[in-house]
Write a structure and sequence with these properties.
Number of domains: 2
Number of helices: 6
Order of helices and strands: HEEEHEHEEHHH
Strand content: 15-25%
Helix content: 25-40%
Distance between the termini: 16 Å
Largest sheet: 6 strands, mixed
Oligomer: single chain
Shape: globular
């Protein structure tokens, strides 16, 4: 990761002498039982981009830590339509991740004093750099409409195009959500306005809003 242009671009925005710690979040649905009810869990893991990839995901190296389990319950209310239930589940995910990653947001803005292996204290800035997930969870994290590209503005019918579409950005997504909230008179209208911009319409406030240098 340290050979990429992203690293050098972020480093330019940090104070002189500061160190960057790119935070990688990973999540995957895990089957807990096979024959007793099909219990599942959503563990969330954290690791750092400073660690070589060959070591990062090896359990024996203990370079990846479990930070939380997300709720898998779909009981989010009664007498809800399918769209309303889906929207609540999506917002519950983002609300949960915001609580879990709140210390990361504060550390990314102010920095943290960390003692290195040489005994020296450095100011380190943990920046949310990457979220590793399968396609459905990529759509969930980026608030994009399922079936579209979570990285660029390509609709379902344009996914086979040879060239990528216009790149999605945090700023554009937040602007679309803000406009939809301002102009919508009901939750259904909010969803419709969001889907016109290839967004899911189930999330009003993404968990990554306010994270420094996060896009």
């Amino acid at each position: 990761m340290w050979t990429g242009n992203w690293w050098y671009g972020i480093q330019k925005h940090l104070p002189v002498g500061a160190s960057l710690a790119p935070v990688i979040i990973a999540m995957d649905k895990t089957q807990l039982t096979q024959f007793s009810g099909g219990k599942t869990a959503y563990p969330v893991y954290l690791t750092l981009g400073n660690i070589p990839r060959a070591l990062r995901w090896k359990p024996s190296q203990h370079a990846c830590i479990l930070i939380t389990y997300l709720s898998v319950s779909k009981e989010v209310g009664k007498n809800l339509t399918k769209k309303q239930k889906s929207a609540r589940i999506q917002q519950l995910f983002h609300d949960s991740m915001r609580v879990v990653l709140q210390p990361l947001m504060e550390g990314g803005k102010e920095g943290m004093e960390v003692t290195g292996c040489d005994g020296k204290v450095q100011r380190v800035y943990p920046i949310l750099a990457c979220y590793v997930a399968d396609y459905p969870k990529q759509c969930l994290v980026t608030c994009t409409k399922y079936g579209t590209c979570p990285k660029c503005k390509r609709s379902e019918d344009e996914l086979g195009e040879r060239l990528a579409g216009e790149r999605r950005t945090q700023r554009d997504t937040l602007a679309c959500l803000s406009d939809a909230q301002a102009n919508a008179a009901s939750p259904n209208q909010f969803q419709q306005l969001c889907k016109e911009h290839l967004l899911s319409g189930g999330v009003c406030r993404p968990f990554w809003e306010g994270f420094p240098h996060c896009d």
